Model the fold of this input.
Amino acid sequence: MEFLGKIVIAGLMNGSIYGLVAIGFVLVYKSSSVLNFSQGYMLLLGAYIFWFFKASLKLDLLPSLLLALPSGFLMGIAIERITLRPLIGQPLISMITVTIFLSLVLEGLVSLIWGTYPLEQITVFGRGSGTVGSIVLTTENVCAFGVAFGAMVVLILFFRYTNLGLAMRGVAEGHQIVQSMGIGVRRIFSISWGIAGVAATIGGILMGTTLGFQLGLSHIGLLAIPAAFIGGLESPEGAILGGLLIGLIESVVSGYLGNAAGVPATFVVLILVMLIRPYGFFGLERIERV
Amino acid sequence: MLKLSNVEVKYAGVILVLRGVSLEIRGGKIVALLGSNGAGKTTTLKSISGLLHTELGEVTAGTIEYDGQRIDKLGPEEVAKKGIIQVMEGRQVLEHLTVEENLRLGGYIRKKKSLKQDLDMVYGYFPKLTRLRNSTSGYLSGGEQQMLAMGRAMMAHPKIMLLDEPSMGLAPLVVEEIYAIIERFNAEEATGILVVEQNARAALAVSEFAYVMENGRVVLDGSSAKLAENEDIKEFYLGLSKFGEKRSYRDVKHYKRRKRWL
Ligand SMILES: Nc1ncnc2c1ncn2[C@@H]1O[C@H](COP(=O)(O)OP(=O)(O)OP(=O)(O)O)[C@@H](O)[C@H]1O
Ligand SMILES: [Mg+2]
Done:
C-alpha cells in the first residue's frame, strides 16, 4: 500500500509536468495545425538556459526564473520566425518534418554550448523533506508539482477568460474569419510559440530539479505528445488530463514491472485510447450540420 | 468615402477576375452590388477588405481609396482597423466557440468601450441571439448564424460594412427580418453598407444606389429605385428567370440581353 501510494504520487508529479508541456504542444497545434515534434528539445534548451542563470551566473531562484521564462518565450518566437514562418503556405507535412529536424539542431546547439555530460546538480527549491503518513516527500518534488499545476491553471484561465486567449482559440477555428475581424494571425502564431516555449522551459526546469540537467530531459517532451493526443489535440484541459494519465501509468507500470516497461505501457494506452476515442477525450469533433 | 477606380484583380498572377471595376460608397449609405454567380462580387469585397491577399489575389491595376488614402496594398487586419469590416459569404462563424465568444472576438479591435454595452447593442438588433449566447455557434440554424456573423461585425463599430449575400439559403421571412435589421443598423449607427446580393429585390429595396456586375465589370449602375424599374433587372433578377418554369426560353433571351450589356 505504501509502495503504491508512493508511485502514484510520483506519477502524478511527473504527469503534471507532462501535462504542462503538452499544453504548449496543443497550443501550437491549435493555432497553426503544426505538430511540434521539437517540443522536447525546446524543453531541453529552456532547462539549460535556466541552469546557466542559476548555476553559472549564481543568481537566486527568482531572478533566474525571471530571466529564464522570458528567454523561453523568445526561444519559441525565434523558432517560429526562423524556421516555420518562411514555410507558411507550404504543405503542413513539410512544416512538421522541419520540426523533427529542428530537434536535432536544438540538441546539437545544447551539446555545443554545454557539452554532452550531465551538468552539475543544483538544488532549485531547497533540500527539505517531510512525510505524509509513511510516504516521504521532498521539497523539490512538492514544489515542482505545485509550480506545474499552478502554471497549468494559469494557462487554462488565460485561454478561457482573456481576449488574447480567446483570439487564440478563434485562430484555431479559421484564419480567414479571424483576419476579417482585424486580428493578426501571425502575431497570434508567434505568441502561441512563445507560450509553448515558456511551458517547455518550466517543464524542463522542474524535470531538471528531479532528474538532473542532462540531455535525456528531451525525452520528457516525447511523453508530452501522447499526453496531448489522449487529451484530444485541441484541448488544453485534455492535455492536463492526458499528462496526469501518462505520468500515472508510467510510474505504476515501472514500479511493478520494472523501469523499462513504463514508457511502452504509455504507448499501449495511447493506442487503446485512439481506437476508442479517435479525437481523444476532449478533442473537438467536426460539427456537421446541413 | 470608399472609392474603387478601375480596379483589376488577378488571382495567382494569372487569373484575371476583375477587369476594371469602379464604384463608390458615400458615408452612411447603403449601396447594393448585384450580379450572377461568378461575376466577381465577392472578389470585389475581398479586394476592399484585404482578404484577397490571403488567397494569392492582388489588385494589379486601379486604386482603392478610403477617405483619400489608398488601401489596396493593406492586409486585412489593417483594413479592419480602419473601420471596414467584411461579413463573409456563407455565415462564417467560429464553430466551436459560443455565440458570445464570437461576438467578443468581433469586438477585439474596438476602441476601449464597455464590452457589455456593445454586446447589448448587438442583442438589441438580434434578440434571438440573447437566448443563444452560451450555445456553440456551430449548431445554430443558418439564419441564426447569419445574424451572428453580422452581429460580430457590428461589435467592431465599422464605418463601412461589406455584406456578402446575407440572404443566401435563407427562408423569405428570415431574409426580410435580416434586411430590416440592416436598414435599422444603417440608420442608427450611420454605418455605410455595401451589400452583395443575388436577391435583388431585397437589396434594391433597402439601398439607395446599386451596381450590376457581369464578368468582372460593372455593366449597369443607378439609383436603386430606377434600377428596380429597369427591364433587364426585372427580368434577370426580379422575375422568375432563375427557377421559373419557362427556363429554357428565358435562358436564350437572357443570353442575348447580357451580350448587349457587355
Ligand atoms: N481564390 C481564388 N483563386 C482563383 N480564382 C478565384 C478565386 N476566388 C474566386 N475566383 C474566381 O473568380 C471569379 C469570380 O468569383 P467571385 O467569388 O468573386 O464571384 P461572385 O460574384 O461572388 O459569385 P457568387 O455569386 O457565386 O458568390 C470566379 O470565376 C472564380 O472562379
Ligand atoms: Mg460570392
About this structure: Residues 240-262 of chain B have pLDDT under 50 and may be disordered. Chain B touches chain A at residues 49, 51, 54, 75-77, 79-81, 85-88, 92-97, 101, 104-106, 108-109, 136, 138-139, 152-153, 156 (CB under 8 Å).
